[in-house]
Hints:
The chain is of the alpha/beta class. It contains 18 helices and 16 strands.
Amino acid sequence: MVIGPFSQVLTLSKLPLRGALSDEQLEIITDAGLVIKDDKIVKVGSFNDLLIRYPTEQVQFLEDSFVAFPGIVDVHTHICWAGSRASDYASRLAGKSYQEIAKAGGGIMNTVRKTRAASQEELIELTVKRAGELLLRGVTTIEVKSGYGLSVEEELRLLEVIQEANQRTTADLIPTCLAAHVVPSEYKDVDTPTINTSSEQLYLKHIAERLLPEVKRRKLSSRVDIFVDEGAFSKMESREYLRKARDLGFDLVIHGDQFSTGAAELANEVKALSIDHLEAADIDEIITLANGTTIPVVLPGASLGLGEPFAPARKLLDAGCSLVIASDWNPGSAPMGNLLMQASVLGAAQRLSMAEIWAALTVRAAVALKLSDRGCLQTGMKADVIAFSTNDFREVLYRQGEMNPKLILKNGIFIKPQ
């Protein structure tokens, strides 16, 4: 199938995967077309040239002006949950901190209780619904974390929910095991076996020995995440858990430097794929990441939800780091889920170029998930394409999330036709 003409196609190809970017580095093809066969891109180029080169192919003519981008890749979400935390949000507006709310019975454990009480089918339907909302906003690949079960049985159930939801939605769901989200309340109430063993260490040992081998055996996830910060797990506790996960063959991800620093050094040490949050990162953390391979993932939705400063995206790029922007859609700290709006606002606040923002949502995001088959529009890539009703690519971020794609292809299939 030949599709076009597009006023502009931004391929997001040929960009360096680290460091600052200017808009002049963007490859923009005008009066362009795409040739798609099955779920892959065969060719991107001049629409008229493609009509001549592929005369026997079906042609999908576009009647209006469209600008096309690769499908957005959201590398950090928590969309598998039940219940609401609107009461937490009201408490924050009234002046309570994230940590104070958690100590009062809100926070993550509030969602854990509601998620544990939900049926398997209810959780599947909720996850599919949220994935569908993201897809209609142009997010064609969605990382989804467990982490609201916090027991061997419940974490396995949530990963099974994500697996089943992936079969029922057109978007690709990439599961991550976040059993090490926080220590469940039942572990905090148990006396530790020795004076030198904390409840955090006891819980991490339990899930490392009982949960992770079963996740691997059932092929429920290839990724393991842990929250390294105040109120969650220390660097020392996390290091041993991550080493065990790595020895089992998992890729590693870290929630880190959200409220306190120190996790970036650990991320480099264990060669984590990414470190996500970084709102508290200082110059030492930035230099550490610039000297390593771990990809910084910033989550402006959490900053907006908590009323906290943004992660230092501009400084990370200027130091030579990669940069990925993700939504962190969750019921507590980032309840919005609108990634394009979040990225637009972050870009305005930190003076990110449009090239830097789009790379952080597509090609660099795909690398953070180790997905080499998407993130840009070029021969051989997945035919994940989103297009907006405009003739100028700059309009999309200029509208700060108010402009949604009018045309969406996932694996070469029209999800939202013109």
